[in-house]
Design brief:
heterodimer, A: six-stranded mixed sheet, four-stranded antiparallel sheet, globular, B: seven-stranded mixed sheet, 0% helix
Chain lengths: 115, 117
Amino acid sequence: AQTVTQSQPEMSVQEAETVTLSCTYDTSESNYYLFWYKQPPSRQMILVIRQEAYKQQNATENRFSVNFQKAAKSFSLKISDSQLGDTAMYFCAFWQGGGADGLTFGKGTHLIIQP
Amino acid sequence: DTAVSQTPKYLVTQMGNDKSIKCEQNLGHDTMYWYKQDSKKFLKIMFSYNNKELIINETVPNRFSPKSPDKAHLNLHINSLELGDSAVYFCASSHWSIPGGEGDGYTFGSGTRLTVV
């Protein structure tokens, strides 16, 4: 079974700073998908970024980028020029893909952006 | 044009009651899921359905019964509600296999906050 570990329960940074959220996972599969989801107080699960394991290039979405290290089974999220609206819970998730597998989630990191 | 919609958004009920949560998706996905988010924010899958067929049934009390009348709908019925059932329940959907690796592959509803008193 896959496991996902987020070692930072809470982080706090000043607005406009860059912050990196860490995520490690464990799997014996060679092809899979990794996600970062944002959950603001509204509780909506918002996809931030996604990475396919077969792609070596790190995914980027505007101010959000990942550092995907497949051999190390590491998938960190970098948020540049952080904004107050980035304050939320962030979940790292693993998906083997295809079939009807569920996502395996980490326990989340509560990110607080200070004005 | 909501992609995955759940109703109701909030549900407050007494112990022992029976309640249902409905979920509908208009994305053309063939697989739907129920997740439970507990008070510590941990998300865990409960069930998944593919084309109305139950695929995953994690260790969930049999008081929880999912029903899928068609591949666009997946409802969750809960009998004899207990205090420990209080949580946020998320519906999600995806394709059986991600076509071409594009698209987000997985879409969540906005969640239903269930409070049992």
